[in-house]
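Notebook entry, structure prediction.
Reason for the run: the old model in the group folder had no record of what sequence produced it. Starting over properly, with the input documented here first.
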Amino acid sequence: MKQFKIKVNEKEYLVEVEEITTGATFSPAAPVSKVEQKVVKEEPKQEERKPTKSENKQSPTISTTEGEEIKAPMPGKILKINVSEGDVVKEGDTVLILEAMKMENEIIANSSGKVKKISVSVNDMVETDDTLLIIG
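New structure, fully documented this time:
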């Protein structure tokens, strides 16, 4: 048996530890043989994109000259909208929460201004680059 001094919360303890062996011996694994790999480049197929709920709504398109569009950085679900149309936001404010791959992502304002239009609702599913709201 081996003895060790262990200090916990400024108090010392003398402990004895016994090594238990199973009798089994371990040896290193054999090296993996080299596998030749062939790289084939495939062109991505063009898939037909389905419109999201926000695109199905018959809302007029607002050009970017009327303000800065905040777009979805990834596909996901709108969990919470922290602003309303007409609210004044500062650059860096969290305007909404987007859930993607079970993670909550804060979407922040890239500029200061007034929220001109909110293009989504809570529980809407959005795709990458969908317009979420416009700040002008």
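Summary: Helices lie at 53-56.
The old model has been moved to the deprecated folder.
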